[in-house]
Amino acid sequence: MEPTGAESSKRAERPARETVVAASSHEYQRAISYLYERINYEKTADSAPYPFRLRRMSEFLDRFDLHGIAGKSVPVIHVAGTKGKGSTATMVASMLTAGGFRTGLYTSPHLMRLEERFTVNGTMPSESDVVLMIDLIAIEADQMARTNLGVPTFFEMTTAMALMHFRNSQCNAVVLEVGLGGKLDSTNVCYPAVTAITSIGFDHQHILGNTLGEIASQKAGIIKDGVPIVSGTVQTEARDVIQQIASRKNAPLFQINTDFSCELKNAISPDDWTTTFDLISHQAPVRKRTDWTTSLDGDHQARNACVACAIVDLLALQGYKISDADQKAGLSKVPIAGRIERFRLPGNLDVILDTAHNTDSIDALCDCVERRAQGRPVTVVFGTSRDKEHKPMLARLCQVADELILTRYFGNPRYRETSELKRDLPSGCSASVIENPQAAVETAIRRYANSQLVVICGSFFLAAEVRPLLEKLIQP
To answer: Could you say which of 3.90.190.20, 1.10.238.10, 3.90.1640.10, 3.40.50.300 is the CATH number of the domain covering 341-473?
Structure first.
């Protein structure tokens, strides 16, 4: 669908949608290569001053008349957090879709394909759509590179692509996951109906700060004047910062363990990897839920689901209502690869693929592993990035692993050397090293003939490189 709205005289003429034929593999790869050659902070771990400028992102939206889809004409839910933001955003989008909304969801990073970042009702754009959007964006990006605003970054471009796709797809609801931080993230040019901060923890300290208060201040930068905010944050230092900023901006604040709470009700079953929870309401408009279930496993996902339900309750106050039946349906089929994703192999062998890459997310994963192991031996395959605090992650993994295999990924230069991982193992913990991640997973699976739990974690990039192997192994 051709983008609509007033055309700027400086804007290059856009091709009509009807003239665009299905993109060849060559055209798609050409377009994707252009995008990946832009400044991409997902592929660097170097400490540097925060490089993002909201003025540049706002100008980018102006050039494509995207401020309407960014919240001026449709409800936008804006979700930040150290962990849980992707799951929570996807839960909200799934409930909106089940409730009849045409819902755009923007998340990052992707596992296998760029298009995973911007879906509409769970469906990715076509390759020809991607080629068209990148070609349009390239024209304006190259023009901006010659101004004092500078060239847009990879993430700024993908954010603009997401909003363009949502507008072209006639979405009437949009969920935006913050990429990094909040205050200066490119998504923070939106005009949200509801904002949310799922959690605060230590990650990206070289950009966000070295204390929970500093990190909370960056993430709370998404709070807008008068816009309700849901917080799943539990640490006192971070909660205080969020509360102060919300109060200063007259933003109604609804906090977990104050205005609502969450109770996990799972009865562990080898065949049922869903999560059942109660949402306990202490303050309207957040409503009680009893024995609700989400398809994502883990007590942390119960908390994320409660935050998502609180968001939906705040949307209902603004006229965007979803029935309980539709909310339940949406939560029961949340589509997220790499979030305690279970691959069931012959011989009672379960493989868990998880993108956990910081201390908090590894803790949540290990809690789930301890419940799910049920006496089975646990082998952990771990590789991570050099900007991550690997020592506490290794310490926690050694508590659950009968065997630990250290590996790395190859598709991104941010990987941490396996020699460093082995050097920094806690006392009493041993590990083998297999550099090739596919070989590491195959070795882990072969070690035991039956009744094993294999866990793969440490990085989105590692998960992306081994997931095709797991999909192949479960094929009949």
So the answer is: 3.90.190.20
